[in-house]
Design a protein that fits this description.
The chain has 367 residues and is of the alpha/beta class. It folds into 2 domains: 2-28 and 277-356, no CATH class; 43-257, Alpha-Beta Complex (Spore Coat Polysaccharide Biosynthesis Protein SpsA, Chain A). The chain has helices spanning 2-28, 53-64, 84-94, 113-123, 143-148, 170-191, 207-212, 228-234, 258-272, 277-300, 306-330, 340-357; strands spanning 43-49, 71-78, 98-103, 128-133, 136-138, 157-159, 162-164, 203-206, 240-242, 250-252. Helix 3 links the parallel strand 2 and strand 3 (98-103). The longest helix has 27 residues, at 2-28.
């Protein structure tokens, strides 16, 4: 009797898993995004930086070297204590497209990237706004065009893909897998009509959308979430579009230590608790069902139904490899495909450790 219950529990959990993968197939098997419009509109590219002098030296040339006729680059110095401001001003003297916004320390908003971004947005000359981070570089010279040319009065929010540079080591592999899995989710949900997040490494929206929704006011006291909480608040099925052509990608420098990545994920998880209830339910059930799958799959191997369990488990892994594998290829991460089951288990255990340590976490700045 117990063996039968474990097997049927496994079947039920696999059905939940497979339902999610069918939703994710919206992104995996979607037609490519339309090419950018030939009509150009002026764009403001915004980068908020704190103590990022070395990254700015490397990446400002990439942002300026875009095949786009009219744009400005707004560099926001968020109370840096290194020579970030000096680097910004040095580049500004060479190129008139650069505007520098120097945000001094403010006791009320100290540590708030949202405050600094708000000042930058107010300084922007153009209604179309494109955001990235100081440690990011666009993967093509058509990045601005790909990310902004579909912005109009109806579609005011564009969600893009921000990947991480490939490096050696297990940590880098885990980071890249977690990134493609997250992107597959937010692209798929947006395409299904309920967008819930975007990443500040590659995000575009109009100033009208920002000011009509009072910007970050509703979550200004939460230090993180200038990207996902804003999207969670304002995005809907009619005003949001996805861009996932390879020309629209950006790439960031990944964390190089487990501790730094661990702290970063704790911050992300602490922000997600402010999502809308329906989004928290969807994301929570996906994680719980994956954890439950591994537990029941192992348990089922020690029952008299193990032969049937092998078939069910095999079907689940096959569907996962097809859907997430195609998504990985689409996001230029083919090398991860054959490691997906192992990476999934490693990520689940890592997230379990992060969840269990949240009670001891302390607030941290946006960096």
């Amino acid at each position: 009797m117990a063996s039968m219950l474990i097997f049927y529990l496994l079947v039920g959990i696999v059905l939940i898993n497979c339902t999610y993968y069918l939703v994710f197939s919206r992104f995996s098997f979607a037609k490519g995004t339309d090419s950018a419009s030939t009509t150009s509109f002026p764009v403001s590219v915004l980068v908020c930086a704190r103590n990022e002098s070395e990254n700015l030296k490397s990446h400002i040339p990439f942002w300026l070297d875009q095949n786009y006729p009219e744009f400005e680059l707004i560099l926001i110095n968020d109370a840096s204590i290194d020579d970030t401001l000096e680097i910004m001003n040095e580049f500004a003297t060479r190129d008139p497209r650069i505007k520098v916004v120097d945000v001094a320390r403010n006791e009320t908003f100290w540590g708030s990237k949202k405050y600094a971004l708000t000042l930058g947005i107010k300084r922007a000359s153009h209604k179309r706004l494109l955001f990235t981070d100081a440690d990011c570089r666009p993967d093509s010279k058509d990045w601005i065009a790909q990310m902004t040319q579909q912005l109009d009065q109806e579609r005011q929010l564009v969600i893009g893909y921000g990947g991480y540079m490939k490096q050696r080591g297990l940590l880098n592999t885990v980071i890249r897998y977690e990134t493609i899995l997250t992107a597959t989710q937010y692209f798929s949900y947006a395409m299904a009509g309920f967008p819930y997040m975007g990443v500040g490494r590659n995000l575009a929206y109009t100033s009208n959308l920002f000011f009509d929704n009072s910007g970050f006011t509703s979550h200004m006291d939460i230090r993180s979430g200038d990207d996902d909480l804003f999207v969670n608040k304002v995005a809907n099925s009619s005003n949001t579009i996805c861009r996932f052509s390879s020309e629209s990608f950006t790439y960031s420098v990944p964390k190089s230590s487990w501790r730094d990545w661990f702290l970063q994920k704790k911050r992300h998880i602490s922000t997600a608790k402010y999502y809308k209830p329906k989004h928290k339910t969807l994301l929570g059930l996906f994680y719980i069902s994956n954890l439950a799958f591994w537990i029941t799959a192992i348990a089922a191997m020690f029952t008299s139904y193990w032969k049937y369990a092998v078939v069910v488990i095999g079907f689940r892994f096959l569907l996962q490899l097809i859907v997430i594998g195609v998504a990985s290829a689409r996001l230029k991460e083919r090398s991860l495909i054959f490691y997906i089951p192992v990476l999934e288990l490693f990520l689940i255990l890592s997230q379990l450790l992060i969840f269990s340590s949240r009670r001891t976490s302390t607030s941290a700045s946006w960096k």
